[in-house]
Amino acid sequence: MSSSKKVITREEWEKKLADVKIRKEDMNKLVMNFLVTEGYVEAAEKFQMESGTQPDIDLGTITDRMAVRKAVQCGNVEDAIEKVNDLNPEILDTNPQLFFHLQQQRLIELIRSGNVEEALQFAQEELAPRGEENHAFLEELERTVALLAFEDTASCPVGELLDVSQRQKTASELNAAILTSQSHEKDPKLPSLLKMLIWAQNQLDEKASYPRINDLVNATLEDPVT
Amino acid sequence: MPSSAAWARPEELVESLSSLDNTARLKALRDVKNQIIGNKTKKLSYIKLGAVPRVVEILASDTEVPLLVQSAAAVGSFACGIEAGVKAVLDSGVLPHLLKMLSNGDQKVVEACARSLKMIFQSTLAPKSDMFQSHRMELIIELLNSENESVAEVAASVLARCCETVDHQRALADAGGLQSLLRLLKGSVKTREAALDALGALTKGNKQLCAALSSMDQGRSLATIMKLVKDKSPRTRLLACTCLANVGKASPSSFQKEWEIRTSMLSVLVKLFDEPGSVGEEAPGVLADLVASNEELQEVALDMNTIEKLGEFLRKHELPSKQLAGVLMALAELCSRFQESRRQLLEMQVQAPIIAALEHESTSVRAAACSCIRSLSRSVKNLRTTLKDERLVEPLLKLLNDSSADIQELALSAVSNILLEFTPHKAVVFRCGGVSQLIQLSQSMDPTLRLKAVWALKNLIYMSDKTLKETVMGELTCNSLVDLIFDSEEKVREQAMALVRNLVYGDEDSVQLSLVQDAVLLHAVEKQLHESTQSEICIQGLYALSNVAAGSEVHKEAVMNIIIPGTSMGVNRNTSLLMKYLQDMTNPQLRVGALWCVINLTFPSSLGVSSRISRLRNGGVEAQLQIMAEDPCLDVKDRAKTALEQFSTVEIPPR
C-alpha cells in the first residue's frame, strides 16, 4: 500500500512550510485568546504590555469571572451564586441546568460538612421543585441524596460526587456560561487548532507519506516513512 | 431552623424592602434577588407577598446606584421565565422608570435596566404599539445608536419584539432604524443577533423595506447578511436566513447568485432543526418562509429528506407551539405542489398528530395544521386512500367557526378540497351539519369567507344526488343564491354561477332545479350573460345553460328562449345572446361554452330538434358555425364541427 503513496521529503516539506506566512500578530492573538479564556489575567496583562496584543475582552471581567470560579472550587457555592448574579442576573435565570448544578453542588457541600439536617431541608426546599420541573434533575437529585445513606462515603457508589473533580466540573460549567454571556467563546481556539492538525494529518496519511508531527508539545517533524 | 440563618423569613424580607434605612433596604433587595434568580417557585411566592411593587418603588424614587442596580436586576428576574412575573412588574408601572433610567449617568444602572427591559419584552404581555408613540420611538432609536453596546442590543431586541404591523415597520424605517440596525451587525454576537432579529421583524412581508435593504450601500449590507448564513453561531445563521427569506419572498431575484444562496440556506436550516432550544424550534418556520411558492426550491428540499426530518418531529410528543406550527407550515408548503412530498409524508403515518393539531390551543398551530391538510387534500387520490381518515372532518368543521378569520379561511379551503368528487368525507360533512355552516359562511360580511364558502358548496353539490341538492337549496334558498350571483365581489359572482352550473348538471331532476320558483336562477344567469363583461363569469353562465340544455324538451325550450329568443318578426339575426358569444373573440372558452349549448340543443334523437335547428339557422347560427370550423382554437374548431354534423341531419326546408 505504502508504495502507491506519494512521498514528500523533509526538504520539500520544510520549503512548503516556509512558504506559508503566518503573521506574528495572529499568533499573538491566539495566545491572548488562550490566556483570556482560561482566566490567566496577570499573564494576559503582561503579555499585553510586552507584545502590544489587545485582549478581545475587558480584562476586568476576567478577574470577576475568576473570583466566581474560585468560590466554587473552594466549596463556597452561595458566594459564587451571589457574585455571578451581580455580574449578570440573566446567566442563572436563563440556564436551568447550570442553576440546578450549582444548587446540587451546594447540597454536596452541606453533606460534606456533615450538616445532615440542613442538607435535607435544602434538598427539599430548593432542589425538589426543580426535580418536579425536569425529570433528569430529579434523577441527579436522588443520586446526590444517596450520599447521606452512607457512613463511609468512600464505599458509596456515588462517592465521586464528593470528589474535587465534581467542584471542577461545576466551576467549568459556570465559567463557560459567563464567557458565553460576555459574547465570548467558551473554549480557547488553540486546542481546536490542534485537533484540526491531527485530523488533517490523518486525512493526509491516506494519500501521502510526509514529515508528520507526532510530538505535539515540541512540534518536531518526523522523517517520512518510505 | 438552620437555613433561616442565611436569609430572613420571606415576609420580613419583603417588609425590609420598604425600610427607611438604606443599608437594610439594599440588603433585603439583594437577598430577594439572589433567592428568585433561577427559581420559579420563589418568584411566585414573592409576587404573592407583594414584593414587586416595593422593588419598583425603589427604582422609581431612589437615587443611589447600588439600590438602582439591584432593583433593576430584581425586576428583570421577576420578569424572566414566568408570565405572572411579567404581569406583576408591568402592573407596577415599571416601564417608564426603566426607560428613563436608560439615560442615567451610571453605566451599571443603564445596563441593569437594559437587561430588565429585554426580559420584559421577551414576553407576549409586553406592550407593543405603545413603543411606537413618537417620543418613545425617538428614544428607542437614540438607544439603538448608543455608545453602550448592551443598550443598543436591548433597543434592537425590543424592536424585534414590538415591530408587528406595516405601520410599525414604516415608522421604524422612517426614523432611520434600518441604517442603525445594519451598523449593529458589526458588534458582538449578541448585538448582531438582536439587530438581525429586528431586521427580520422589519422586513417581514414588507416589499418596500426588503427592496430598501437589498439596495442599501450598493448591496453590501445584504452581502453582509449573506455571509452570516454560514456564521459559527447557530442563532446568527437562523436569523440571517430569516432576513434573507423575507427578502426572497418579497422580491424574487433580488440578489446575485440567488439560487446558490437559497439552496445553501436550505441546507443550513435543515441542519439547524437539530439544534437545541429556540434555534431548533424556530428553524422549521423559517424554512417554510424560504420555500413558500418556490417550486424549484421545494424540489431541492425533497432531495434533502426534509419531509422525513419534519415528519419525525410530529411523532414526538409535546412539541412547543412555535415549533409545531413551524413544522406544519413547512410541511404545508412542501406538500402544496408535489404529490411525491405528500406521499412521503402520509407514508410516515403522521395523520393523527396533524389532525390533533387542528384542535390545538394555539392559533398559529391550528392555522398551520389547516394549511397542511389543505395541501395534502389537493390530491383526490390521497383523500380516497392515505387521507381517508374521517376524523379530520369534525375538527375542520369546528374551525369554520374559529375566532380567527384567517383560520376560517384556511379551513374553508381545506373543506372545499375534501368535498371535491367522491371522497368518503362528503357524507361525514353532511352528517355533522357542515352544510349549514357553509351556508352561513356564504352570507358572511367578509368577502373572502363568502367566496370560499360558495366555492366549497359548489364542490359539494358537484355530481351529488337529488336529495343532497334539494337539502342544500332548501337551506340556501334560490333567492340567496341569486343575491350571490349579483354579489359585489367579482370572484363571488363567478363561483355563484359555477354553483348553478354544478347544481343543474346531471339527471333530469337536477336540471329541473333550474326551473323552480319561476326559473329565478335561470333568469339570474341570463341577466349576468347580458350585463357582465367578465369572461370568467360568463363562461360559468354558458356552461350552466348548456347543462340545462342537456335536459328534457321543456328545459331545452327554456334555454332557447334565453339564447335565441323568437320575436314576432322571427329571429333577430346577430343580436341574440348566442350569436354574441359565438362571435366573441376575446376568450375562446366563451365560444366553447356557447358551442356546447348549441350541441346540446341540437342533439339528434331529441324530439323538437328539427324546429330548434331551423330557428337557429334563421338566427344565423349555422353560417357562424361554418366560420368557426376554421377557428384558430382547436377546441372551438372541433366543437363547431360536431355542431355542424348535427345540423346536417336536419335538411334545410325548400324555400
UniProtKB/TrEMBL annotation, chain A:
<dbReference type="Pfam" id="PF10607">
    <property type="entry name" value="CTLH"/>
</dbReference>
<dbReference type="InterPro" id="IPR024964">
    <property type="entry name" value="CTLH/CRA"/>
</dbReference>
<dbReference type="InterPro" id="IPR050618">
    <property type="entry name" value="Ubq-SigPath_Reg"/>
</dbReference>
<dbReference type="InterPro" id="IPR013144">
    <property type="entry name" value="CRA_dom"/>
</dbReference>
<protein>
    <recommendedName>
        <fullName>CTLH domain-containing protein</fullName>
    </recommendedName>
</protein>
<feature type="domain" description="CTLH">
    <location>
        <begin position="61"/>
        <end position="118"/>
    </location>
</feature>
<dbReference type="Pfam" id="PF08513">
    <property type="entry name" value="LisH"/>
</dbReference>
<dbReference type="InterPro" id="IPR006594">
    <property type="entry name" value="LisH"/>
</dbReference>
<dbReference type="InterPro" id="IPR006595">
    <property type="entry name" value="CTLH_C"/>
</dbReference>
From TrEMBL, chain B:
<keyword id="KW-0539">Nucleus</keyword>
<dbReference type="InterPro" id="IPR011989">
    <property type="entry name" value="ARM-like"/>
</dbReference>
<dbReference type="InterPro" id="IPR016024">
    <property type="entry name" value="ARM-type_fold"/>
</dbReference>
<dbReference type="InterPro" id="IPR038739">
    <property type="entry name" value="ARMC8/Vid28"/>
</dbReference>
<dbReference type="GO" id="GO:0005634">
    <property type="term" value="C:nucleus"/>
</dbReference>
<dbReference type="Pfam" id="PF00514">
    <property type="entry name" value="Arm"/>
</dbReference>
<dbReference type="GO" id="GO:0005737">
    <property type="term" value="C:cytoplasm"/>
</dbReference>
<keyword id="KW-0677">Repeat</keyword>
<dbReference type="InterPro" id="IPR000225">
    <property type="entry name" value="Armadillo"/>
</dbReference>
<protein>
    <recommendedName>
        <fullName>Armadillo repeat-containing protein 8</fullName>
    </recommendedName>
</protein>
<keyword id="KW-0963">Cytoplasm</keyword>
